[in-house]
Amino acid sequence: MEEKNLSGEESLKLINRMIHEAKGYFYETGLSAIIYGFSILVCTVLAWLFEKKLISFPFHPFLLMTPVFFIQGWVQYKEEKKKKVKTFTDEVIDYVWTGFFLSTFAALCGNFVNAGYVIVTIILFLTGFAVFITGLISKFRYNVFCGTICLLIAIISFFVQNVNIYLLLAVDAVLVWLIPGFILRSHFKKQKHGGSELLL
Amino acid sequence: MFKDLDPILHSQLRLATMSLLISVKQAEFTFIKEKTNSTAGNLSVQVQKLKEAGYIEVIKEFKDNYPNTTCKITQKGIKAFEEYVKALQQYLQVKK
Fold this sequence. Notes:
The structure holds two protein chains of two kinds.
Chain A: H1 8-23, H2 31-51, H3 65-82, E1 85-87, H4 88-108, H5 118-138, H6 141-157, H7 165-194
Chain B: H1 12-22, E1 24-28, H2 29-36, H3 40-52, E2 56-63, E3 66-73, H4 75-95
Antiparallel strand pairs in B: 1-3, 2-3
């Protein structure tokens, strides 16, 4: 870009073009979503088998999620560092998911008073809400659709207040993290070979 | 009454840089260079001018053992950019 005096029209065109360029930036490898989704899927299936007494386990399988949080947090941190641009959309989505994780931990405190399977229902609602909002903010239609399905699953969970509720959580893990994770991963690979940013 | 266009913003590369930064929270120098299709030397000079005017904040840090520069628009920069766009619109209306 050379330095030259711009006319009024040229200035407005340049402003529009640059704003469009900046808003089109998107960097997501999908790796942290895949790690998280796969871990929840494994833990929920193990928890279901464990509570059905089909397998024996030295501790509750959900405790396996503790190291996963640290691993996923580390992967997320690494991914964030690779981003050349931090958009306002990224920032708002980060706030939504921070709120989701804090609310999930708060809901898990129900275990202290043996609140039972209703805790899973609360987590299902929180997941549906977070995914729906993320979809609206990022204009990613899959997430809007998926968030609606998750909210329906959460409603169904009121009628499944037994060990089978873990299977609903497993369905959520596949819909919310695994499928979008693989979609993002495939876009990322295409983007890497094509050398352009992904535009959603 | 017609307002004069801000001379700091009325330059192609500086205006392009500001337009990129107005729509994001922060952006790396390499990203701005790539999108504006400018040379590192020229962009450095223009970024420095914007910094001196208080329109942008320049953060220098190390990323994976390499120096990395990140730019972020300031409140003063946002205000100047908004005024520039208003003045530009006014100017174009007068011209019509």
